[in-house]
Specification:
The structure holds 2 protein chains of 2 kinds. Chain A is mostly helical. Chain A has helices at residues 3-37, 44-69, 77-94, 100-124, 129-148, 160-164, 175-193, 195-205, 207-212, 217-243, 254-264, 276-295, 300-335; strands at 152-153, 169-170, 173-174, 246-247. Chain A is built from 13 helices and 4 strands. In chain A, helix 1 (3-37) packs parallel to helix 12, helix 4 packs antiparallel against helix 10 (217-243) and helix 11 (254-264) packs across helix 12 (276-295). Chain B has a 6-stranded mixed sheet, with helices on both faces. The longest helix of chain B is centred in the middle third of the chain and has 16 residues, at 184-199.
Chain lengths: 336, 508
C-alpha cells in the first residue's frame, strides 16, 4: 500500500478538483480580458457591485447545491425569495423599530416553512421534486401577488438601519458579502465534514443503497429542502435591504440563475457529487459574466446565450471527467 | 476444503425466525417459516429460484416486515421498522447485488453510518482511511480506500461489502449468494474470513446454489420450497442428493396438458453462439411442432441467449440460421420479418404498454399492416383484437380498457395474442407463467401446447421445473453460460435437471 496506492490518489484528487479549477481559470481569464480593455472594471466600486450582486445568488446556490446533490431540485426558490422579501419589507415598514436580526429570522422562517411544504410533498407525496417545486413556484408567487394586490413597498417606507445594512461594512467587507461567505462556508463544511452531509451525498449517489444502508432518508431530504427554502428566505431579506423597493414580482425567474450557478459550479445534475464551494464560484462566475458584458458593451442578450453554453459545457465536462476516472481506475486494476 | 463441524450449542439462538409469513398481493412468498441462527455457526439457506429465500433475507434486513410471525434476537422478540433497526441489532447483510455509493470513496462507503468522529463531531478522515486500510489488510486485498467505488469490479465491490459488514462489528452476517461473482481464489479468501468470523462467535446465514460451498462452510442447513419450510438439519446428516430431492420434491401434477405432435422441419439452428462473459458455445436446434425448454438457474444465461438469437442483444461468435437461411445478427426487425416472435420475461416493462387499451396492445406489432393509407382505423384494430382474444379465451371487460386492468394471466394472453397475430414460425417465451395463478397457468400451458400441435416451433425459457418437465419435448440445461445437459422428455427428471443446473454429475 505505498507507491501503487498514492500515485492514483494524486491523479484522482487532481481530476476531481478540475471542476473548481476550471471555474477559477474562467474567472481569471474573463476578469483579465475585461480589465485589459477597460481598467475601470477593477475599480473598488465595480468589484463591490459584483460581490454584492453575487452574494444573494451565492446564498441561494448553497441551498440549491444541497438539494441537487440529493438528486432533487428546488425550482421554488425565486418565489420563496419574493414571498420572504415582501413579508419582511411589509413588516419593517409597519414596525420600523424592529432590529435587523428579527428581519433575518423572519425571512429564514418564511423560507423554512416553504421548504417543509416542498420536502413533505416530495417525500411523502412521492411526487418528483421537479413537479412539486414547479407547482410551489407558482403557488408562492400567487400568494405574494394576491397579498400585495399591486402594492409595493418603497425605500422611503423602510427604516434607515434596514436599508444601510446592505452597504454597511465590517473591516471593509459589506455585510451582505460576509453573510454569503459564512453561508457558503458553513454549508460546505456541513456537507464535507459531517455525517449528515455525507449521507446527503450517499442518497444522491444511490437512492436504493441509501435506503438499504439504514440512512434516515426522509429526515435528511426534508432537511435539505428546509435548508434550501430557509436560505432563499434569507436571500429575500438581503434582496429587500439591498434594493429597498419590493413588489410581488421580486426574484421572478431567479430560480434558473440559481440552478445555472449550481450546475456551472460542477454539481452533478444527477446528484452524488460536486461541492458547495463550486456552487458559490458558479454564482460568482455568472455575475462576473453579466458585469463584464456590460463593461465590454456587448448586447445583454448574449449573456443568456453564454450562460446556456456554460451549462452545457459543465455537463459535458462532468461526463468527460467521470469517463476518464473510470478509465484510469480500470487501467490501475489491470496492473494489480 | 472439508467440513468443519461447529460446536453444537443448543442455547438461545442469536437470531430466530419464528413462523413468519409474507405475501405480496395475492402471492404468498413465505409461509410459516421458522429456523434459528446460532452464534458460532454458519447456516445455509437453500431452495429453488422463487422458493422465498430473498424474501427471508429482506425481512431479516428490515426491508420487509413479516405479515405474521416474529423475529427474535437473543431470545427477545424484535420489530424492525427499517434497515437502520436491523443494523442497530447487529445484523449485516451482503446482498446479491452490491449496494455501494458510486460517487463516494471506498473508505466512505465502508464507514457510512458509523464514521469515526473528531471532538467537534466532524468526520475523522484519517481514522476512516486507516480503518478501511486495516480491514483490507485483514481481508488480504489491495483496494485503494480513497478511490471512488465507481468502476470497481463486481468481485471488489463484494469485498467492499464484506469490509462494510466487518466494520460494523456485526454479530449476524447474512450473505445472499456472495460467491456468484467471485473467482476460486477470492472464494477461498472469503471463506477464510467467514470462518474466522464464525469462530469468533458471529452467526452466519449463507445462501448459495453451490453445494460444495455449503458443505465446506456450513454446519446447519434450512431447505425451503415454494415459500414453505421443508427442514432444518445438520449439514453432516444430509447428502447432496437429499438436499436436491427436498428442494424440488413435489408431485408433477396433471396440470400440463402436453399434446403429442408431429415434429416437422428444422426451424431454428443455433451454432456455437457466444458472448464474452455471458454465454459461450451454445448450440441447439428447434423443429416445427416442438417445444424446447431452456432450463437452469437464474443468471445461467438463458434469457440472454434467446435475446441474442432474436437480435435484441449482440453475440460475438457463432451463427443463427432460421428456416434454412442465415439470420442477420442484432436486428429484432429482421427476426420479426423472418417469422420469429419473442414474449419477454417482464410483461410490465417489455411486453405491454400498460396504459394503452387491450386492442391497441394486441395490434401494435401489426399496426402497419392494418393501416389503410397510413391511417389506423379503430374498426380494423377491433376486428383483429376480437378474433385473437376470443381464441385465447381472455377474460376482459371491454377491448378499450387499459391492459393494466387485467390479471397477470390475462395480460400474458394479450402478449401472446399480440405476437401470434404476426403469424410467427417460431415463438420464444421467457418465463411464460411467472406471477400467474395456477388456473390461468394451465390455460397458458394448454395454449402453448395447441400452438405446437399446429406446427409452431416453441422455445420456452423457464425456471419452474414442473413446467419444464411437463411441457418440453426436449430440455437444454444451461449453467454459467454453457450447455450443461441435453435431455429428452423421457430422460428428464426433476433431479437430473437440477443436478445439471447446479453442476453436479448427471446420473441417468
Amino acid at each position: 500500500m505505498t507507491a501503487t496506492a498514492t500515485a492514483p490518489r494524486h491523479l484522482l484528487s487532481g481530476l476531481v478538483k478540475v471542476r473548481e479549477l476550471g471555474i477559477i481559470l474562467a474567472l481569471v481569464l474573463l476578469v483579465g480580458y475585461t480589465a485589459a480593455s477597460n481598467p475601470r472594471f477593477l475599480s473598488g466600486q465595480s468589484i463591490r457591485d459584483i460581490l454584492l450582486n453575487t452574494a444573494i445568488l451565492a446564498v441561494m446556490a448553497a441551498g440549491q447545491a444541497v438539494v441537487v446533490i440529493t438528486r432533487n431540485i428546488d425550482l421554488s426558490v425565486g418565489s420563496v425569495l419574493g414571498l420572504s422579501a415582501f413579508t419582511v419589507a411589509t413588516m419593517m415598514s409597519d414596525n420600523p423599530g424592529l432590529p435587523m436580526v428579527v428581519a433575518i429570522l423572519v425571512g429564514l422562517a418564511v423560507g423554512g416553512a416553504a421548504g417543509v411544504l416542498n420536502g413533505v410533498l416530495v417525500r411523502y407525496g412521492r411526487v418528483p421534486a421537479l413537479v412539486v417545486t414547479l407547482g410551489t413556484l407558482y403557488m408562492f408567487r400567487g400568494v405574494t401577488y394576491s397579498w400585495a394586490g399591486g402594492q409595493q413597498v418603497n425605500a422611503d417606507e423602510l427604516p434607515r438601519h434596514f436599508l444601510t445594512f446592505a452597504n454597511d461594512a465590517v473591516l471593509g467587507i459589506p455585510w451582505l458579502v460576509l453573510i454569503a461567505l459564512v453561508v457558503v462556508g458553513g454549508v460546505a463544511l456541513l456537507m464535507r465534514n459531517y455525517r449528515v452531509g455525507r449521507e446527503l451525498y450517499a442518497m444522491g449517489s444511490s437512492p436504493q443503497a441509501a435506503e438499504l444502508a439504514g440512512i434516515k432518508v426522509a429526515r435528511n431530504l426534508l432537511g435539505a429542502f428546509i435548508l434550501s427554502g430557509a436560505l432563499a428566505g434569507l436571500a429575500g431579506v438581503l434582496f429587500a435591504a439591498r434594493f429597498g423597493t419590493v413588489d410581488a414580482a421580486a426574484g421572478t425567474g431567479l430560480e434558473l440563475n440559481v440552478v445555472a450557478a449550481v450546475v456551472v459550479g460542477g454539481v452533478a445534475v444527477f446528484g452524488g457529487s460536486g461541492t458547495v464551494w463550486g456552487a458559490g464560484l458558479g454564482a460568482l462566475l455568472l455575475t462576473v459574466i453579466g458585469s463584464s458584458l456590460t463593461v465590454l458593451d456587448i448586447n445583454q442578450f448574449w449573456q443568456q446565450a453564454i450562460v446556456g453554453a456554460l451549462i452545457i459545457l459543465a455537463i459535458c465536462a462532468d461526463r468527460l471527467v467521470a469517463v476518464r476516472i473510470a478509465r484510469s481506475l480500470r487501467k490501475k486494476d489491470s496492473h494489480v | 476444503m472439508t467440513a468443519t463441524p461447529g460446536p453444537s450449542r443448543p442455547g438461545p439462538a442469536k437470531l430466530e425466525v419464528r413462523d413468519v409469513t409474507k405475501s405480496f398481493g395475492a402471492v404468498a412468498a413465505v409461509q410459516g417459516v421458522s429456523f434459528p441462527l446460532y452464534a458460532g455457526e454458519a447456516h445455509a439457506l437453500v431452495g429453488e429460484n422463487g422458493a422465498g429465500k430473498s424474501t427471508i433475507v429482506k425481512m431479516l434486513a428490515g426491508v420487509h416486515r413479516p405479515d405474521t410471525g416474529t423475529l427474535a434476537v437473543d431470545g427477545a422478540e424484535v420489530e424492525f421498522a427499517g434497515p437502520a433497526d436491523a443494523k442497530a441489532a447487529g445484523i449485516a447483510v451482503i446482498y446479491q447485488e452490491p449496494t455501494l455509493f458510486p460517487d463516494l470513496s471506498v473508505a466512505e462507503n465502508i464507514a457510512m453510518g458509523n464514521q469515526p468522529l473528531t471532538r467537534l463531531r466532524q468526520i475523522d478522515r484519517k481514522a476512516m482511511h486507516a480503518n478501511a486500510a486495516r480491514l483490507f489488510t485483514r481481508l488480504g486485498v489491495h483496494i485503494d480506500p480513497d478511490r471512488p467505488a465507481r468502476g470497481l469490479s463486481i468481485a471488489d465491490q463484494q469485498l467492499v461489502e464484506i469490509a462494510k459488514a466487518l466494520s460494523s462489528e456485526a454479530r449476524v452476517l447474512i450473505m445472499d449468494e456472495p460467491t456468484a461473482a467471485l473467482s476460486g481464489v477470492e472464494v477461498d479468501r472469503l471463506f477464510a474470513v467467514t470462518r474466522a468470523l464464525r469462530d469468533e462467535g458471529a452467526a452466519i446465514m449463507f445462501i448459495s446454489h453451490r453445494f460444495e460451498e455449503i458443505t465446506a462452510l456450513c454446519q446447519r442447513v434450512t431447505i425451503m420450497r415454494d415459500g414453505r419450510h421443508v427442514c432444518t438439519e445438520p449439514v453432516a446428516d444430509l447428502s447432496v442428493d437429499d438436499m436436491i430431492r427436498r428442494m424440488v420434491g413435489r408431485d408433477l401434477s396433471a396440470l400440463f396438458p402436453k399434446q403429442d405432435t408431429e415434429i416437422g422441419e428444422t426451424v431454428l439452428e443455433v451454432e456455437g453462439l457466444g458472448r464474452e462473459g455471458v454465454f459461450r458455445d451454445v448450440s441447439f436446434t428447434v423443429r416445427a411442432g416442438e417445444i424446447v425448454a431452456l432450463a437452469g438457474l437464474v443468471g445461467a444465461g438463458r434469457s440472454e441467449v434467446m435475446q441474442a438469437v432474436f437480435g435484441v442483444d449482440r453475440y460475438d461468435t457463432g451463427s443463427v440460421r432460421f428456416l434454412g437461411k442465415p439470420l442477420k445478427a442484432g436486428s429484432p426487425r429482421a427476426a420479426m420479418a423472418a417469422g420469429m416472435a419473442l414474449v419477454p420475461e417482464d410483461r410490465r416493462q417489455q411486453g405491454l404498454v400498460m396504459d394503452l387499451s387491450i386492442e391497441r396492445n394486441v395490434t401494435l406489432p401489426r399496426s402497419r399492416a392494418l393501416a389503410r393509407l397510413g391511417l389506423l382505423f379503430g374498426a380494423a384494430e377491433r376486428r383483429e383484437a376480437t378474433s385473437w382474444t376470443s381464441q385465447l379465451q381472455t377474460k376482459l371487460g371491454r377491448l378499450s380498457d387499459p391492459v393494466g386492468t387485467l390479471s397477470g394471466g390475462n395480460q400474458q394472453k394479450v402478449v401472446l395474442a399480440k405476437w401470434l397475430a404476426t403469424d410467427p414460425k417460431l415463438l420464444i417465451v421467457d418465463e411464460p407463467t411467472r406471477g400467474i395463478d395456477v388456473g390461468t397457468k394451465a390455460e397458458v400451458h394448454r395454449l402453448m401446447s395447441s400452438l405446437a400441435a399446429r406446427g409452431l416451433a416453441v422455445v420456452m425459457v423457464s425456471s419452474e421445473l414442473p413446467e419444464v418437465l411437463g411441457m418440453a419435448d426436449r430440455i437444454i440445461v444451461l449453467r454459467e453460460g454453457h450447455v450443461a445437459a441435453r435431455l429428452t422428455r423421457a430422460e428428464a427428471t426433476e433431479e437430473n435437471v437440477m443436478y445439471a443446473a447446479m453442476g453436479q454429475q448427471v446420473t441417468t
